[in-house]
Amino acid sequence: MAAEILSMNPFAYTATGELGENRDTMLSNELLLRTQLGRPKRRGYSSAPAEHFVYGRPLEPRQGGADDALHGWPPMNPLAATTLPFSRKEKKTDRDFMVLNKAAVQAGLVTASENYKFRATHDVRRKTAGDENTRSRTRRIPPTMVFGISTRPSTPIFDLLEHKYQDKWLMSRRQMELTKRQEESKQRRNPNTVYETRASLLRTYQNPVDEAPLWQLPKFKKNARASLQTFRSEGVRKQGYEHFESDQISRKGQLGHGVFESAKN
């Protein structure tokens, strides 16, 4: 009954109903459409196919007809497998431009346009590692060769009866315990010996170590030396530096090169 009403009046399930003003845009407006009883609300574009539209591709007719469905899948022709839409195609290798360029030069084509036309009509692919071994080589198998896994050696039943595996494990454990005790005894400290502590090590006299000289380019260590010597002798030079160090106390400046400071109270 509802289908008949809907076919007679498509605006029966809209907000205005049969008595209100009806417009064609109401049939596509989700805010004005009302849900039908026992049916889900349809959402989507108005350009969707009809309700009874079936998606997908139709099945190809079989040679035996509908009776083949009861007897399983028929044998497929191996030559027809390449025509299937989802068949796995062989991956082509890259083009070998070095061979193409060589062939073009041999044919007398040297310009860019001539090479472009030559490559459009000729195609050479790179050879893979498997192309060299395409020949089927039959491997000659010796007549005495046996396939399969070698037989496991028999279990020594006399060793099991004599508990030899148990004795071997006990001996290995005993040897491990002895070696462990020997290592612990070596690590024990002798109470008669005196051991150094951090404080005793710091109190010991340490030989003075000269500070490393400042870094200098190797070419300046030999060649770039002072060309002028303003002091008459090395003794005069030391006296001058001693006087300079004693005079720094009363001068201003970070290095003691400034003027003399006034006396401070």
What does this structure look like?
With 265 residues, the chain is mainly α. It has eight helices and no strands. The chain has helices at residues 2-8, 97-106, 112-121, 157-161, 164-187, 198-203, 218-222, 234-247. The chain is extended, with a radius of gyration of 52 Å. The termini are far apart. The model is unreliable at 78-86 (pLDDT under 50).
Brief description of this entry?
With 265 residues, this protein is mainly α.
Features:
265 residues, mainly alpha, 8 helices, 31% helix, extended
What would the average pLDDT be, to the nearest integer?
78
Any idea what the shape is?
extended
Tally the beta strands.
Answer: 0
The whole-angstrom Rg is 52 Å
Largest sheet: none
Structural class: mainly alpha
pLDDT < 50 stretches = 78-86
**Number of discrete helical segments:** 8
Percentage of helical residues? Answer: 25-40%
- Helices and strands, in order, run as HHHHHHHH
Strand fraction: under 5%
End-to-end CA span: 121 Å
What does the secondary structure layout of this molecule look like, with pairings?
Elements: H1 2-8, H2 97-106, H3 112-121, H4 157-161, H5 164-187, H6 198-203, H7 218-222, H8 234-247
